[in-house]
Inverse folding.
């Protein structure tokens, strides 16, 4: 049985992972087709009807400026997923760029690279992100950058240890003996085999990235109004907690469901790719 | 052991130095000219210039850094632009609050996390296990600012049992700590369970059981100890996330800790405060990592025989 098929079957058996995948697919559809699926314009304010509780006209109610909450949440899905993917993309790219040479070549390069990585790790992740946003200024793109950068050390470490392990294996030695160049070995031989932990880590990191970006949004350091980012929506909703709890409840719930489905998938992938458990 | 401890403690010095350099550079990168900000936009150029001289902003960068380090070592972290009070004073007013919150939340997380994790690992795939691990997944996925607001709504607004914002009584600590423990306990519980499952498969556990030791003794005396190392690693990382989460939680509950200080300072462009608080966070975290490493060495004597 091919390895991919085995992994797929193991994944399917994990009920949580399957549920997570279904939910995430639903969210992706929402994100892609937000413009068509949202009943109202997420940016259109109607002050005469603000803070309205859920009704037949506005299924989830309206926010503090009278905008339809459901539409804003649907568009928020697009923003959050976008945020998650790009942040992790940045972290993955630079993490591999740092970790691969460090693990493959070792020696001084490794030492220097790891010093830098360890240094970045001396700040808690969110604080690093906050620092970067404090320098760059608030905004959606800067938040993406900040979260991405704060996740780089994890990838660098992971890639490095995977490479350290893989480069000793026979197939790499064989390629070397045949005279393959280092770059070729790294990209054609080692990298494809190091994918499993990277995939698991990435799924879980998209979840973390969404949470961090939402936190930045909540603090006012991320997406700025009127952008319907879930965290930013919650920060505006705070003061209305007593009169309109629904504008606090639903966006936060959306964040939780998204992150939860990603975590379930990540856990499922980890168990499915684990060579020991059958 | 002592030698290892000292060696490890010395190893933190380069890290701390690097952190101070980055924090220093960061301050220079922040948009805006501090002297201009303080003097106001309409101030005469001579006034702005004299302020710059006073703060040493006209010196070359390395000299500025040395001045900065000298000040820091003397305990002088600068003066807050917003309040006029020394940064170290502002921090000292608020740091105890944050530490109290962090320690309470961490204690809950460790005690509850260990307990749940151990119980779940001794009854794998049972109802208890499934329910608690599902709860753990949900806990880790819910953003702390949301759970904080929900807790506030249920217990402060609707039921009126606990105060919503501020400090003063132990009751004020309750909601923020629970919110913080909400996302840290699950991490520890999950790691404990997985670590314990690993350990319980080992031969020496079989030996203990076949020796006739009660299940309770086997678990507490043999299993838990050996499972501890990955748990401690995760606890260290989790404390870092706790520090980050406390910034958000303090904002939610208007809790006057250094987290709230940092955020307010960022919006007020109060650079000395930003610099000071970031430095403190990094120091705290570095000390924490040192503590975690020393705990490893204490638990597993093999580590320092190298």
């Amino acid at each position: 049985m091919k390895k991919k098929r085995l992994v797929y079957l193991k994944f399917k058996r994990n009920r949580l992972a399957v549920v997570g995948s279904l939910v995430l697919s639903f969210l992706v559809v929402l994100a892609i087709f937000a413009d068509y699926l949202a009943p109202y314009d997420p940016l259109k304010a109607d002050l005469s009807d603000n803070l309205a509780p859920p009704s037949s006209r506005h299924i989830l109610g309206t926010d503090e400026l009278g905008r339809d909450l459901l539409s804003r949440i649907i568009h928020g899905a697009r923003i959050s997923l976008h945020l998650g993917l790009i942040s992790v993309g940045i972290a993955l790219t630079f993490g591999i760029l740092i970790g691969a040479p460090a693990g493959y070549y070792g020696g001084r390069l490794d030492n220097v690279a790891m010093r830098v990585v360890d240094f970045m790790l001396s700040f808690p992740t969110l604080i690093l992100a906050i620092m970067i946003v404090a320098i760059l200024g608030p905004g959606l793109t800067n938040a993406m950058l900040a979260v991405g950068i704060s996740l780089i050390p994890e990838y660098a470490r992971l890639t490095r240890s995977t490479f350290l392990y893989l480069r000793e294996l026979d197939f790499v030695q064989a390629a070397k003996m045949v005279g393959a160049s280092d770059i070729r070995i790294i990209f054609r031989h080692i990298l494809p085999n190091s994918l499993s932990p990277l995939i698991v880590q990435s799924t879980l990191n998209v979840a973390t990235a969404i949470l961090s970006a939402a936190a930045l949004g909540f603090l006012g350091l991320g997406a700025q109004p009127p952008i319907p980012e879930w965290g930013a929506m919650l920060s505006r909703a705070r003061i209305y907690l007593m009169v309109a709890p629904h504008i606090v409840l639903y966006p936060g719930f959306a964040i939780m469901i998204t992150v939860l489905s990603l975590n379930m998938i990540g856990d499922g992938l980890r168990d499915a790719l684990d060579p020991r458990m059958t | 052991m002592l030698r290892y401890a000292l060696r490890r403690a010395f190893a933190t010095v380069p890290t701390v130095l690097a952190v101070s350099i980055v924090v220093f550079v960061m301050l220079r990168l922040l948009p805006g000219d501090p002297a201009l900000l303080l003097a106001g936009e309409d101030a005469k150029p001579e006034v702005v210039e004299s302020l710059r001289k006073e703060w040493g902003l006209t010196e070359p960068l390395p000299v500025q850094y040395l001045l900065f380090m000298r000040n820091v070592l003397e305990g002088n972290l600068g003066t807050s632009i917003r309040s006029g009070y020394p940064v170290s004073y502002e921090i000292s007013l608020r740091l105890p609050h944050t530490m109290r919150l962090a320690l309470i939340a961490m204690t809950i997380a460790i005690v509850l996390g260990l307990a749940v994790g151990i119980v779940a690992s001794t009854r794998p795939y049972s109802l208890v296990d499934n329910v608690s691990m599902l709860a753990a997944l949900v806990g880790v996925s819910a953003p702390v600012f949301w759970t904080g607001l929900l807790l506030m709504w249920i217990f402060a607004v609707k039921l009126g049992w606990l105060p919503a914002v501020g400090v003063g009584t132990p009751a004020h600590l309750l909601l923020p700590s629970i919110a913080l423990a909400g996302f840290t306990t699950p991490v520890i519980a999950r790691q404990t369970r997985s670590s314990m499952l690993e350990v319980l498969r080992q031969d020496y556990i079989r030996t203990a059981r076949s020796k006739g030791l009660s299940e309770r003794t086997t678990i507490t005396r043999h299993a838990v100890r050996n499972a501890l190392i990955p748990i401690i690693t995760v606890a260290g990382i989790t404390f870092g996330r706790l520090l980050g989460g406390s910034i958000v939680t303090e904002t939610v509950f208007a809790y006057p800790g250094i987290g709230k200080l940092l955020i307010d300072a960022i919006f007020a462009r109060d650079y000395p405060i930003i610099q000071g608080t970031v430095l403190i966070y990094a120091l705290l975290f570095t000390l924490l990592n040192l503590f975690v490493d020393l705990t490893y060495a204490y638990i597993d004597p093999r580590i320092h025989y190298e």
Summary: The CA atoms of residues 23 and 275 of chain B lie 6 Å apart. Chain B touches chain A at residues 15, 18-19, 22, 26, 29-31, 134, 137-138, 140-146, 149-150, 152-153, 157, 240-241, 243-245, 247-248, 251-252, 262-263, 266-267, 274, 278, 281-282, 285-286, 289 (CB under 8 Å).
